[in-house]
Amino acid sequence: MALSNWDTMAVDLDGKPINGEWTSRSDIKIVFYKNWIHIHDSKGWSKDSSFVEPIVITIQSGSIVYKDIHIEAIRGPQNGIYAAVWDF
């Protein structure tokens, strides 16, 4: 499916635009995809997973801590996802 009908607005701590992907210091990748968030972790993915490699978690909304990352995500207008993502 084409992504042309989905908009992503993502900024870094300085307010500069980024492409909707971010990688933590421990190589965990956060990807804003359509109206949810994927956490990619090649080392944490299992062949028994129901997700496509390297996705380990899909987030619709809520608060999550995974390894060195923290995500606070809420639903907003038109069922979009709005989130703050950081590592510690």
Written account of the structure:
The protein has 88 residues and is mainly beta. The chain has one domain (15-87). Helix content is 0%, strand content 47%. The chain contains no helices and nine strands. The protein has strands at 10-11, 17-18, 21-23, 29-33, 36-40, 55-59, 62-66, 69-75, 81-87. The strands form three sheets. It has a four-stranded antiparallel β-sheet with strand order 3-4-5-6, with no helix packed on it. A hairpin with a 5-residue loop joins strand 1 (10-11) and strand 2. It is globular. The relative contact order is 0.18.
Features:
88 residues, mainly beta, 4-stranded antiparallel sheet, 3-stranded antiparallel sheet, 9 strands, 0% helix, 47% strand
Summarize the structure.
The protein is an all-beta fold.
Topology, pairings included?
Elements (H helix, E strand, L loop, with lengths): L9 E2 L5 E2 L2 E3 L5 E5 L2 E5 L14 E5 L2 E5 L2 E7 L5 E7 L1
Antiparallel strand pairs: 1-2, 3-4, 4-5, 5-6, 7-8, 8-9
